[in-house]
Amino acid sequence: QVQPVESGGGLVQAGGSLRLSCAASSVTFSSYTMGWFRQAPGKEREFVGALSRTGGTTRYGDSVRGRITISRDNAKNTGYLQMNSLKPEDTAVYYCALGLATSGMSNSYAYWGQGTQVTVSS
What we know:
mainly beta, 7-stranded mixed sheet
């Protein structure tokens, strides 16, 4: 099974920063768009952002635009989600996904990680 692995989540105070990592194996990482989604308990999965295969196209969700930066290092088969100015409403499980289009729709992504918890305290 192809599965990205997220890391870097944890507890942070409001206004703080975190950098999440997405490591992929069993696939050629550079062949896929990297997307980030999040899901809070009882809520629908929400698009955070995505970065195209070679990094030429970026898409961000409205709720996080201006506070996040997505990057990737294809040579390391790793992508990153830098989150700044975190708010309590950013608390969620964050997922990395690999797909074939730089899309905000979950069904555009074939391979999903198990998620990493981000908790932002007031």
